[in-house]
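U., I forgot to send this yesterday:
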Amino acid sequence: MKKRWIGAAAAGLLLCLLAGCGKPDVVSQDFFAMDTAMNIRAYGAHAQSAVNECIRTINELETHLSRTQEGSDIFALNHAGGKPVALTEQSAEVLRSALQLAEETGGTFDPTVAPLSDLWAIGTEQAAVPEQREIDAVLPLIDYKSVKLNGLEASLPEQACVDLGGIGKGYAADRTAEILREAGVKQAVITLGGNVYVLGEKEKGVPWTVGITDPDHPGEWFAALRVTDTSVVTSGDYERYFEQGGKRYCHIFDPETGYPAETDLRSVTVVSENSTQADAQTTALFVMGCDAARKYCAEHGIDAVFVRNDHTVFVTEGLRDSFSISDTRYVYEE
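Result:
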């Protein structure tokens, strides 16, 4: 059995190309939070204090949103035996966003898939295909509609479990960008695992270049996007997976079947000023498969890049002028 876990340091999913910036007063700080390697690179006189505040905020967010840290809001909710639990404003805001995005995507993004994550154990040495009866036993627990949120109070059925990992880093990226802007930082690159948020331009009149990871060779990139003041978020089947019986099983679950998503996609990238939404949307679009995902993007005005299993790449209209392929193994799909 082959197992693979691509961490953000090795991949992240997108590599921001910073060479040649040549800016004064640059602060670049690496740290680890939310189970992934992170980096904030900011420019300007107030960059250091702003970056310090960003890291403090992200660490604080983790203490509220983690489902594994005892004392966190989500840990308490998952272990309340069905009883209501009081949440902090931030936890309630993230949970509310997760439930709203689950509704908007028809449940293809679902923050209650944690029992499936635990059962399959992808990303650990115990990863293996469960018995069908085991999957059938937990499927009734996978239902975002069973989560009740009233103001700052939440509850869910006994044995059900919420995991905000599919949206938490997006929310953290949005908060980080907000803190930097409030501090007067006009140029920055925020890399939180597979979530990249860029502020301003690389230099006057020149956008930032964000590379999109090659699914066949994580750590390398096959294409790039030229972007300004926005986030670029990718989900792919190469992040965490294992192979059994010659078949790959990735960490992105189809809430309907209880199995890792089986689609014609290797990765999905969403470009949006709202990284919270983009985080959930990449998961949902991956589960949908390329044709349904393209239709969904057209109906909802989402800018995205889809990489298919056959190395064809579809780019939504809004990104075509800013997207370029550098690896000849990949070709455009019209």
